[in-house]
Amino acid sequence: MQIFMDSANVKAIRDAVEHGLIDGVTTNPSLIAKEGGDFRGVIEQICRIVPGPVSVEVVGTTSEQMMTEGREIAKIADNVVVKIPMLKEGLRAVRELNQEGIRVNVTLIFSAAQALLAAKAGATYVSPFVGRLDDIAHVGMDIIRDIVAIYENYGLPAQVLAASIRHPVHFVEAALAGAHVVTIPPSVLEQLVKHPLTDIGLERFLADWKKVPQGIFGPNR
Ligand code: E4P
User: What is the pTM of this model?
Assistant: First the structure.
């Protein structure tokens, strides 16, 4: 399973890349607005830092607007993936952009039916929003399982990108469900690394080590 960071925060992205923790990035208009600054400049910076795919969303709502924006976004860098919302107009844009060789991530997916249509239109990634389904009392992870099974049934090449991930249990469940990619905010990435027993164990090892007179690098080291 690939791990993407769901953020437009350059500092957090750089840190995760330097630690070898992420394979790509997803952004959305809300995440970009949160960071402020010039949109194109931020995206260019992120694309330079990240070796893998960086999803950038269009804001037009007609096919023509989405295609025009998508073509412009695709020119920013080779690793850009154009994010298109799951609308009827959006599916037309997905088909056209795909035929032009532009990779598309279909976002705001809330049902397996939508995911099937997006894959048939030529999406490279589909992004079902797990947390937002949980918020309205649906088990969001169920659609991840369904979409993975449907794509396998028909050999569809689209990748399931589990999005709106809110905590480490979502992350593990997405992996168990067979999601190809999971995108997580920086806070969840920090939570995944940490375990209280790791910290307690290390503290004890280091305290005991002080009792050893001669270490590898000299006294007490
Ligand atoms: C996906 O690409 C979206 O940016 C994201 O996962 C939305 O998550 P949220 O529901 O926490 O805003």
Answer: 0.95
